[in-house]
Amino acid sequence: MEKHKKPPLIIDSGSSTIKAGLAGDKIPSLTIPSFVGRAKFPHTLKKRTSDTYVGFEAERNISQLKLRYPISRGKVENWADVEELWKYVYSALSLTTNAQPVIISETSFNPCENREKTAEIFFETFNVPGMLLASQGILSLYSTGSTTGVILDCGEGTTQITPIYEGFSIAQAITRMDLAGKDLTEHLIRLLMRSGYSISSSHDIELARTIKEQKCYVSPAKIDMNSPLEKALPESFTMPDGRIIPLANERYLAAEILFTPDRLGLELPGISQLLINSVQNTAIDLRKNLYSKIYVTGGTTLMTGFGQRLLGDIKKASPKDVKVKMVLANNRINACWLGASVLSSTSEFGNSVISRRRYEEEGNRIFYTWPF
What we know:
Layout: E1 9-13, E2 17-22, E3 30-33, E4 36-39, E5 52-53, H1 55-60, E6 65-68, E7 71-72, E8 75-76, H2 79-92, E9 102-106, H3 112-125, E10 130-135, H4 136-142, E11 149-154, E12 159-165, E13 168-169, E14 175-177, H5 181-194, H6 202-215, E15 235-238, E16 244-247, H7 250-259, H8 271-280, H9 287-291, E17 294-297, H10 306-317, E18 326-327, H11 335-344, H12 347-352, E19 354-355, H13 356-362
Parallel strand pairs: 1-9, 9-10, 11-17, 17-18
Antiparallel strand pairs: 1-2, 2-3, 4-5, 4-6, 7-8, 10-19, 11-12, 12-13, 12-14, 15-16
Helix pairs in contact: 4-11, 5-6, 5-7, 8-10
Family: Belongs to the actin family.
Protein name: Actin
InterPro entries: Actin (IPR004000), ATPase_NBD (IPR043129)
């Protein structure tokens, strides 16, 4: 066990945003979009040493940029771009890379080669003194103060269900579905295009995401597409160019695919059934306890009506002898980051962090045996 004088830097890299900050803070001190931009027409932007835009600078110039999303479905697809984003984190927080250890969150079923590449960047490029790669599900549970429960995390790229007992994830019951916020945005775009609106550029897609977050909601019950659709209260969204987009049933139809993906011809369970399947794959004597401790996290779960629909669906479909209880904390969009902050103050962190010396001695093979 190695002790570090400075608190670790926590980086939670998602498909939509990167949250970062020093352990001990109440919330992440930095949240940036996890996209990288290049100028569509370089002569229209101020000359600079790099043609790559990240962080707040990318947000400010978004309409003039072609955007790339280097993290897709929770998995890094472009390491050069992700390294630029991580460099920006250190710069924006005024930190030197070798000053403190780092905690990096990772999705379920993260391939070992991705763990190896992450370690290579942080140890060999950034020269960090120590690093911990930790499951997003376990970190999120740390934020609740509990050691047993089921984490349902629905973010931008993936939906993950992680049952945990006494601090250890139940590997055979972890489930993941590549259907999440990104897919709701894409479905909303299809619905709007059917109404005659053109949405094609990466900037327009970001605007569609904003429409989804501000105007859409989850229907309280399954929608019968064979019956006349309930009329949603009309809303509108004003685009930056002054266009006004009226919204009606699109407001709840966009989110419905998360609960009934068969509507799109997808052979996937809905999110409620996904959780039930996960719990039913645990030992029979654990199930009642797990059903009573469901913790909901992730940005997509912030949609109005999400918790009500999820709880109602699970109660209807779960075994009749269980009592279903669900927690939707106000800070659930930051649950993973906050859990990492809690972890850093425990002896578990000191015992689990990989030191530079150990990495240099054992190399990448350490990630095939490291338990956390």
